[in-house]
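Hypothesis: this fold can be encoded by more than one sequence.
Test: take the structure tokens below, design a sequence, compare later.
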């Protein structure tokens, strides 16, 4: 039983994280505020909630942090900020189902970054899964062609959000080996909020005067999918490869689409079911191919290989 602890706990955290982030698209769509403002308040409120904890016990953990690790944490926050900005905007242009399914392809991008970027060997089976996912994404986008350029642009932004999320996860995976969870997520959320705040100022986004319920959705957006969801993912990054967490996010489109059906009455078009099934199926194949490489030693965060 003791041997199962290193991987069982991170996977449980990821499952809880996926459940939490499934609410993100719903809260965002309920907000009557500009998308960049929603993204900014999401990250800023999350950082604000963490501030008292940082003052109490987090600053000391930053004292001996190397400048390179600090720079990578800020870079991860930048990637997260771009991801939030483009993905939240996509939800204003396309359906919840399309946006969440397409952004879930971040695990595919993580594999591609590993294969072509840092020259890690990837099996043919994994590359086949990537190809299937790309075809599925085309089918999802094709089903939106009849709805106009705006919807198709939303799909494109969701894919861009997936790519930035992969960069965020891959960068964070490396930083989490050197930096404890609390200072890491505070640095990431704060730098993300600063970047989004600058964007809001640059584009003269309206930052106040929203309906009262919007502020409630913004708070819930910061607490549930961000502080619960993303923080659990960042905790698991110390123990699991970045693309494994991305693969686990295949559950988000299902949860978000079900919630969107009951809250907004959104029923995906038939072609989206086909494309979505291909995307999710390919990510599942990826998990099957790579699961044997996932393992973490009980001490030191050292990866070990072993089939289940």
């Amino acid at each position: 039983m003791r041997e199962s602890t290193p991987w069982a706990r991170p996977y449980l955290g990821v499952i809880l994280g996926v459940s939490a982030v499934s609410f993100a698209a719903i809260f965002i769509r309920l907000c009557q505020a500009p998308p960049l403002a929603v993204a900014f308040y999401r990250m800023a409120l999350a950082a604000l909630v963490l501030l008292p904890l940082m003052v109490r016990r987090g600053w000391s953990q930053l004292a001996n942090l190397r400048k390179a690790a600090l720079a990578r944490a800020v870079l991860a926050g930048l990637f997260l900020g771009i991801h939030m900005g483009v993905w939240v905007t996509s939800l204003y242009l396309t359906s919840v189902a399309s946006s969440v399914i397409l952004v879930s392809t971040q695990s595919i991008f993580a594999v591609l970054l590993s294969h072509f970027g840092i020259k890690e060997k990837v099996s043919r089976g994994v590359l086949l899964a990537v190809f299937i996912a790309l075809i599925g994404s085309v089918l999802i986008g094709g089903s939106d062609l009849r709805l106009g350029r705006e919807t198709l642009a939303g799909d494109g932004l969701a894919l861009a959000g997936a790519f930035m999320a992969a960069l965020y996860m891959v960068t964070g995976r490396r930083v989490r080996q050197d930096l404890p969870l609390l200072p890491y997520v505070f640095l990431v959320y704060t730098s993300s909020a600063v970047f989004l705040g600058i964007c809001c100022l640059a584009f003269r986004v309206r930052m106040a005067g929203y309906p009262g319920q919007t502020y409630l959705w913004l708070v819930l957006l910061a607490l549930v999918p961000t502080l619960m969801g993303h923080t659990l993912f960042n905790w698991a990054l110390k123990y699991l490869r970045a693309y494994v967490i991305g693969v686990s996010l295949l559950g988000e489109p299902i949860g978000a689409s079900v919630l969107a059906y009951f809250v907004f009455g959104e029923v995906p078009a038939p072609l989206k079911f086909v494309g979505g099934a291909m995307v999710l199926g390919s990510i599942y194949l990826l998990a099957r191919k790579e699961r044997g490489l996932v393992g973490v030693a009980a001490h030191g965060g050292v990866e070990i290989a072993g089939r289940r």
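DSSP finds 13 helices and no strands in the chain. The first helix runs from residue 5 to 21.
Hypothesis status: open.
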